[in-house]
Protein 1
Amino acid sequence: KALLQRVQAAYNALLRAAARRMVRARDLPGMPLSFSAPPGTWVSFREGVLYDLNLRKLADFDTLLHHEGDQRLTTHPARRAVRIPGHADRDTIFLKAHLVVHPKDRLRSVLSLGRAPTPAMREWLMLHAFAGHGIAAPFPLGIAEHRPWGVPAASLLLLAPLPRRAQRLDLFLDRRVRRNEPETWACIASVLAKMHRAGLQHADLYAKHVFLECLEAVLPDVYLEAHLVDLQRAREVRRMTPARRARDLAALRATVPHAVL
């Protein structure tokens, strides 16, 4: 307990020191680059992302957190996902901002001495875990979380767009003449089996969180690839029980139109 208290004290000291720190990019010439943030904010961006944020005048935590983009993708009261367009499709950034942290999350963070991850950090970790097991998911570009005195208050996550050919599963099925063709369900079954064998549970496996990309024009021997999104509730479990598998399958079954699972 004494060791944990020392670690927490050191962590809070680092947060206070970060109040006067500007995060600067390396090897990106052409303009002075920085990202301003309030006290108690931790940020991490991939190379080049900070340059794009400065170019778009979004190199500020509060500005980025409340940015509306050109398209809002969710109406959740505690979470906002928006699309920030670029000059080309590859320059587009998707922003997930968690503006309000549930009181139980604040309590959990206090009881865990500030070690409980924010929703953005949970998804950041799960995106890397899914990619490590060969499961297609959005590519994480950056993360920032505001933790005054170690208690989570707000967090945001920057994601790269999915391939242009990827379509949401429910829309993909509605636009297909043969909705229950074996290749479609074989692709979904394959990615779910790989996820569960790796000890990963999605916990929000609705049809709108599964995207299918048709690869016929690229790889004739591979028909489809599935991408899983919205991983802020996903988790890694020690033992994947039948009940946990059933929860994921039940959520998918309830939201897939005309599905035979």
Protein 2
Amino acid sequence: PLMTSTANPPATTYRAAENQALDFIAAHVDQEGRSTIAPNDPALHFKLPYVFTYGDRRDIALRVLGHLEHDLLSNEGDFIDNTFNGPKSAFLYQAGWLAWGSAALGRFDLARLIAQRTMHEQDIQLGGFWNETELGRVQWLLNSSSAAAGCAAAGELPAAKSAAQQMVLLFERQPTPEQGFYFSMKGDGQVIAELGDDPNRNFFDLDGPCRPAMFATAIAGLTWLGRQTGTEEYFDLARAYAGVILSHRARPARSHFAS
């Protein structure tokens, strides 16, 4: 691991670590923008347009996005391989990332296409996006807020604002906020206070093992929406969600998926 010193300030260290990571990822992408491990698997591509854009490697980002657009996405904005589209899949999560990656590259046409496809899964009453998990048909924070982030980045602001209202309800209706945070909501607007078979994907335990990354797309989506609208309330809600992580009574930075 890289170490900081007076001759090597933190910003320099972080930049060096970033470049090492980007070099490693880039080594697994061919000249056509395809993963050398599994060229037809969206899971190995959907984050890369944004990651490489943010890392100032726009050429690679564009190659990967081109592969996704021409080889893996349908004309309706979902994946050609229907295995990756169903209600039990990670489609909403992947599509949200891909929409905001497309927007970061200036491909707002593609971002809107993908975002509008996710909107087919949006609940018109509560505003969240539907998924099927082990807890049933739910509006699950990780996937729902990723779709919301994609909508915000693509300029589909009514959909993103509606999803933000569902995130407000999820935050306000937590049954035991002093103990932790449940991630899923039913169609009647009630938070599902169940742990299921994989507790860390359903509950953020303020005293035990946790997965801070479960809040990542909520914070990102609300931040995107705040930037798009200039509305402080969305930044406030993003801070509130980040505050749940920071209120963990142990060391959440050392938890699984803390990045």
Protein 3
Amino acid sequence: AWLAQRILVLGMLPLAFLLTIRAGRLLSTRMWPRLLGATVYTLSPPVMGALAEGRFSELLVAALLPGLVVLAVWSADPRRTPSEGWRASALMALTLAVMWSAAPGAWMVPAGIWLTAVLTAATVSSRGGSLLRTAVAAPLALIALAPWLVDVVRTSGQAIPSAPFSPVAAWRAFLVAPDIFEGLGPATALVPALVTVGVVGAALLLTGRGRATAVVVLLAVITLWGLVAWAFGFIGSAITWIPALLLPSALALAGLVADRVA
């Protein structure tokens, strides 16, 4: 049982890597930029910190997050056939249910991806098909989780596991570099921040490559989720492991690598 558990946990990192490569196809068709982006995401502090601190629920969220993004894009894309779109919607509902049940404290991360997909579908499509199938994914996931939700209400939230309070300083939140690796020297701990500065700087300088809209969206994702992580550290939360809120920022950083290098 001990060995099986360790294999399952360590398997989350290859799964995150492979799904990030697949998600990278949304921005680039070339393999090596996607490999580089997947490496940036898999080795990012939110992902490795979840592994180092034994936050296996958040590690599962980190592994499934790139796949959720792909399903959300497919569901919201009006160019997809109805069968493809509804298949993506059903898989998105299943993924949302798994992520919410595994790490309820990090519910905002998958919810944010779903809400973004809904808003995108409402904006880009004049037909209601893509909006409908995207919008119903979250309610379907909540219906699947109904017995657990009833238990949460009945126990006044005691069914939700607590999480250690791990606030993230503002500059670390915006640079996707939470200080979660205890024992590392200050110089080593700053490496993730320098990586973020390098990637963002390259994205702003290499204006002739990739798509400007994609860069703006990815930078907005990094900024928004950095603000959310900092705010939760400021307000305090008993159920949210705050570095997990930076997982979308880490994935957006990987997207910048794939888009700019391509």
